[in-house]
Structure of DUF4199 domain-containing protein:
Amino acid sequence: MGKYFQSAYRFGTLGGVLSVVSFLALAWFYGDPTNLNLVFGYIIVPIAIFLTIKFYKDYNNDGYLSFSEGMTVGFVAYMILGLISGLGIWLILSLSPDLFELILDTKLKVLADNKELILGQVGEKSFETTLMSVQAMTPFDVGLNDTLWKIIPGLFFSIIISIILRRNSN
């Protein structure tokens, strides 16, 4: 079983750590690093999954890869990446309430600045629900959101990369 997950653990952990580091770096350069960190996630997630599946195929499975093997090691990689990233961001925001307040204030300001546009698109009730949701946001919510936005695209990237790298016989 270890041969299936050796590269998944390695690249999932590396991707998760890079995501946390990018969050810290973006927080230092910008006030609200959450949106840019999601964009960074769309770069790091497919790279981590590709490297995981490619290394598994080349170094653990003699150049062969079934679709299910690719999906399995890809799943482990993006789950580890997402969990490390989300837990790291939650920990950072829990230890730095000033950063969390800055993120919360930025999100509330975006809502206030775009109130008329949002009201025209979704209506008063949806706007008020969104406003209450943002006001009730916690550091855990930010970490959970980041985790989900790593895992969901990870599933699709795993499918595509597993199909591309699949090789069942000579």
